[in-house]
């Protein structure tokens, strides 16, 4: 990983001349888990930003790696997640129509998001902070006594997983049943570009989650409460606001979105701190810097490397004309380490004054609904871990990555004293 003090391997040379219109990968092929490129994608992304910041790939999609170009895509041009005819790119019939709000454009997206947005406002999220703090305290108490911990299994996973279960009204005792399902189900977002075996696991995971929520919803109908699942059931029972299928799909999607990427934020953030003891010392001396430190974790090594939009009209981005209905990937790793915006971008610096300008939560209509929740959970979990642990040291030479579509550690053993 960048920032370890070791010189990263140089990315492959550009197969085409800089600025060439010919489609190519330009040294940044889709990174495969278990490869050096997946462990440390940032040198290759820097190279890409230099030689082909706006380019078409051999698969026909386009990619952007400069901050300004990513901002233009996410906030300025007319785009969505579906083509102009309403179809989802890369979607096979076996994967269904894609009814989760992340796979919808307005007005459907607006309608679905409005149903759940009250649960994720800053005020609503703050009301959960004492509960998150209690979960963190309980998890760290055992770890500090042992002097070591697997940060993923003992902190990064249980904190957001417990909270989203309690928020939705899903039994926390069932967490282990759906943890594997949720990681596999994320690959449904990749559609038919995922390997066949990965597509198969994603479909099986979606079916498992569907059966689980069907049974849970039927039980909850008999005993409605004030949890988010009950809110969705009431909306479905009111008629045209939510269909029965949408009810199940939104429940599954919120569960997955509620903790899978936050595991990555907390896990990758813990690894960054372990590799930068001077930043740990700063935070121990100035715990009031915790919120900015979390923004720097999001900028420095966010779990989502890129996000995709489909143009709804021809657009000029970075000097290139991109046609309507083209898929365009904003490489967030490139934007968040663009030296034009973030000086010395490969340096992990919790005092960075503009850290919050990162694009880790995307932008525009599809800006992350759970951004306030993820920030709060990371503030409590990483803040307590870094400021209270006498020592924070990785107990592995290489991070083992999980099966998720996102870059999320599977294990992260650390020594704490």
In short:
The protein has 417 residues and is an alpha+beta fold.
Topology record:
Layout: H1 36-39, H2 42-51, E1 54-56, E2 62-64, H3 67-76, E3 79-80, H4 108-116, H5 122-127, H6 129-146, E4 148-150, H7 151-156, H8 158-168, H9 175-185, H10 196-221, H11 228-237, H12 244-274, H13 277-285, H14 290-301, E5 306-311, E6 315-317, E7 320-322, E8 327-331, H15 332-335, H16 371-388, E9 393-394, E10 400-401, E11 409-411, E12 413-415
Parallel strand pairs: 2-8
Antiparallel strand pairs: 1-2, 3-5, 4-12, 5-8, 6-7, 9-12, 10-11
Helix pairs in contact: 6-8, 6-16, 8-12, 9-10, 10-12, 11-12, 12-14, 12-16, 13-16, 14-16
What does this protein look like?
By secondary structure, the protein is α+β, with helices and mostly antiparallel strands. The chain has a domain at 99-298 and 338-415: Cytochrome P450 (Cytochrome p450, Orthogonal Bundle). Helices cover 47% and strands 9% of the residues. The protein has 16 helices and 12 strands. The chain has helices at residues 36-39, 42-51, 67-76, 108-116, 122-127, 129-146, 151-156, 158-168, 175-185, 196-221, 228-237, 244-274, 277-285, 290-301, 332-335, 371-388; strands at 54-56, 62-64, 79-80, 148-150, 306-311, 315-317, 320-322, 327-331, 393-394, 400-401, 409-411, 413-415. The strands form 4 sheets. The protein has a 5-stranded mixed β-sheet with strand order 1-2-8-5-3. A 3-stranded antiparallel β-sheet has the order 4-12-9. Strand 6 and strand 7 form a beta hairpin. Helix 12 runs parallel beside helix 16. The model is unreliable at 1-19 (pLDDT under 50).
């Amino acid at each position: 990983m960048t920032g370890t003090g070791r010189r990263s391997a140089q990315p492959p040379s550009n197969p085409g001349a800089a600025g060439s219109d010919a489609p190519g990968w330009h040294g940044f092929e889709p990174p495969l888990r278990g490869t050096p490129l997946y462990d440390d994608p940032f040198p290759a992304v820097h190279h890409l930003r230099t030689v082909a910041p706006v380019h078409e790939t051999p698969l026909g999609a386009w990619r952007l790696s400069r901050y300004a170009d990513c901002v233009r895509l996410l906030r300025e041009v007319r785009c969505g997640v579906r083509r102009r005819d309403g179809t989802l790119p890369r979607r096979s019939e076996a994967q269904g129509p894609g009814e989760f709000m992340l796979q919808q454009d307005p007005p459907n997206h607006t309608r679905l998001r409005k149903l759940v947005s009250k649960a994720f406002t800053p005020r609503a999220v703050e009301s959960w902070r004492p509960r998150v703090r209690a979960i963190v305290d309980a998890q760290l108490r055992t770890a500090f006594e042992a002097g070591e911990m697997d940060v993923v299994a003992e902190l990064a996973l249980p904190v957001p997983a417990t909270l989203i279960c309690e928020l939705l009204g899903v039994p926390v005792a069932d967490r282990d049943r759906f943890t594997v399902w949720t990681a596999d189900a994320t690959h449904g977002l990749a559609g038919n570009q995922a390997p066949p075996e990965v597509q198969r696991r994603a479909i099986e995971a979606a079916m498992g989650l569907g059966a689980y929520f069907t049974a849970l919803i039927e039980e909850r109908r008999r005993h409605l409460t004030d949890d988010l699942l009950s809110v969705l059931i009431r909306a479905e029972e009111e008629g045209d606001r939510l269909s029965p299928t949408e009810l199940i799909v939104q429940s599954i999607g919120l569960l997955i979105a509620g903790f899978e990427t936050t595991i990555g934020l907390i896990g990758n953030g813990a690894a960054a701190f372990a590799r930068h003891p001077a930043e740990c010392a700063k935070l121990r001396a100035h715990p009031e810097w915790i919120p900015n430190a979390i923004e720097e974790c999001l900028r420095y090594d966010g779990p989502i490397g890129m996000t995709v939009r489909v143009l709804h009209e021809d657009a000029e981005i970075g000097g290139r004309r991109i046609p309507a209905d083209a898929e365009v990937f904003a490489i967030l790793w490139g934007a968040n380490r663009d030296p034009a915006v973030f000086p010395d971008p490969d340096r992990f610096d919790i005092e960075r004054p503009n850290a919050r300008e990162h694009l880790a939560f995307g932008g525009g209509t599809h800006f992350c609904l759970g951004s306030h929740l993820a920030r709060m959970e990371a503030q409590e979990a990483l803040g307590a871990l870094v400021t209270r642990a006498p020592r924070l040291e990785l107990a592995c030479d290489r991070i083992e990555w999980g099966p998720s579509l996102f870059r999320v550690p599977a294990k992260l053993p650390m020594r704490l004293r």
